[in-house]
Amino acid sequence: MTETPAPRSEASTSAAGPILVGVMPGQHPVVLQQAATVAASARLPLVCAYADVTVYPVDGSTGGLAAPIDPDGIDADLHRIPESLVQTLHDHLDGNGVEWSLVHLAGEPARALAREAEDIGASMIVVGTREHKLAAALKELTAGSVARHLFHRQARPVLVVPVNPRVPTDDDDD
Question: b vs e for 2-38, b when ≥16 Cβ sit within 10 Å of the residue's Cβ?
Answer without folding.
Answer: eeeeeeeeebbeeeebbbbbbbbeebeeebbebbbeb
